[in-house]
Structure prediction request, 433 residues.
Amino acid sequence: MSWHEIYKQKQMNVDEAVKKIKSGDRVVVGHAVGEPQELTEAMVKNKEQYENVEIVHMVAMGKSEYASPDMAPHFRHNSIFVGGTTRKAVAEGRADFTPCYFSEIPRLFKEGYLPVDVALIQISKPDEHGYCSFGVSNDYTKPAAECAELVIAEINDQMPRTLGDSFIHVSEIDCIVETSHPVIELQPPRIGEVEKAIGENCASLIEDGATLQLGIGAIPDAVLLFLKDKKDLGIHSEMFSDGVVELVEAGVINNSKKSIHKGKMVVTFLMGTKRLYDFVDNNPSVEMYPVDYVNDPCVIMQNDNMVSINSCIQVDFMGQVASESIGLKQFSGVGGQVDYVRGASMSKGGKAIIAMPSTASRGQISRIVPMLDEGSAVTTSRNDVHYVVTEYGVASLRGKSLKERARQLIHIAHPNFREELVKEWEKRFNDKF
Ligand code: COA
Prediction:
């Protein structure tokens, strides 16, 4: 049978497709801007059909209505990364949070910790051989589809066709729903003076020929602003956004000095505007692989001069980094932070940078503290931390004693808090600052 015939046999409307989900199933939803929104919305609309369906999702960029209070008997959300649409449900105990390195999520699915009954995915239209691309979200979405009992796919003709290990054949899909809608966009953040100063300080640590991992948000975008005079930069990152496109077009990022995947940007998901999605469409310089490859520290470290830049909520005097919770309140998740801190630390000439504004809550709280808030999860341990950067400078902590690393951190704290921090330092170390 030709793939065209297989395709036709599997085609159905969105309500028929979500009817295949059964009460008690574990449903894994495609990640971030790759969320198959028509499927998730149809599932929520048909909620009376289900009892106790577990929805596993990481960064949720859709509406996440399955996490609202009236969904309680029908759905229970299990979050691997808490975000704006799911934070309240987790805080109120109506949803769960499961800690896991981003690189290890596929293992949860494949090795029986979280067996997948249904994968809801959004993919590109098939090519002439019947292969659809995972487009903007390969990450855990492809591994989930590979081990799910049932794969329900939204085939969106506006999903870019990204290359790499990024394809699924129509014969591997159980239900096909054709859709046509723009991929969710994420507008570039506002970059203020504080972020610019942090960006400039981070950029001072990046040398020509380095390979970069940048997260999402104002700090990574601010770093990119200060890289315009660098040469031969490369990208090996869990994601990238529009800022990278500008540097590729300016010839700053050309991936020519990468130790592995020379000439290619390696990434596992993408989030940005249509400009980014048009750039990656059928672009052989961008390769997408599942997250258990891209974020594997043993793969990351193979790039010499690997520089990772990630953000955090608090750093204590010992250099313990809390990036995902404020006290006991789960704010986000570990994501790929530790994958890249480890990978960059092990890379020859590598640098792992934690970059953050020196204060939070409009300057009222110092992020550099003698002790983390009670209940805060340590995301990056003091043994792994390398550089901490604020708008006031760079603290280099690797190989430094507890006393010295605390001193370095106080030097980059906001001046309004330094006096108080110095007093704490003198008390703790029984010495004059
Ligand atoms: N005490 C109390 N509140 C704090 C705080 C602190 N030390 N630090 C931050 N906050 C509050 C802020 O005031 C802000 O609240 P508001 O929204 O009401 O103003 C909120 O927490 C978010 O802080 P902010 O620094 O603006 O968040 P962000 O969107 O820049 O994200 C992280 C920062 C650390 C949460 C985010 O980078 C993250 O989740 N990192 C872990 C995952 C990761 O690194 N992944 C790899 C890269 S994709």
Remarks:
- The mean pLDDT is 97.
- The chain has two domains: 3-179, 193-429.
- The radius of gyration is 22 Å.
- The longest helix spans residues 415-429.
